[in-house]
Specification:
- It is a single chain.
- It contains no helices and eleven strands.
- With 122 residues, the protein is mainly beta.
- The strands form two sheets. Strands 2, 4, 5, 6, 9, 10 and 11 form a seven-stranded mixed beta sheet that branches.
- A hairpin with a 4-residue loop joins strand 7 (67-72) and strand 8 (77-82).
Length: 122
């Protein structure tokens, strides 16, 4: 299984970025997909998740309204649209796949991508 995240980079505060994760080696439509992030010296934290059908989405409370998760089961991709970015959003962003019902914890996920760096300058 491979989860390849891309789209990270350096952006000024208030700007936007769109992350994408391409999945292979799994039955993509059978998995919930999530995004997590990890800032230096901090634990990995939940950002957003989407059920296999795309019908249900979940967000960290602090990010609602700024981030949008979506998926394309035909292309085996999951995207994270991030807007109104803040310096606190800086970190490595990881996509992950979960076969279980629970989707907010690191331990709920079966597979992880390598991460993509997002840096928001003030």
């Amino acid at each position: 299984v491979q989860l390849q995240a891309s789209g990270g980079g350096l952006v000024q505060a208030g700007g936007s970025l769109r992350l994408s994760c391409a999945a292979s080696g799994l039955t993509f439509s059978s998995y919930a997909m999530g995004w997590f992030r990890q800032a230096p010296g901090k634990e990995r934290e939940f950002v957003a998740a989407i059920r296999w059908s795309g019908g249900s989405t979940y967000y960290a409370d602090s990010l609602k309204g700024r981030f949008t998760i979506s998926r394309d089961n035909a292309k085996n991709t999951v995207d994270l649209q991030m807007s109104s970015l803040k310096p606190d959003d800086t970190g490595v962003y990881y996509c992950a796949a979960a076969s279980a019902w629970m989707i907010r914890r690191v331990e709920d996920y079966d597979y992880w991508g390598q991460g993509t760096q997002v840096t928001v300058s003030s």
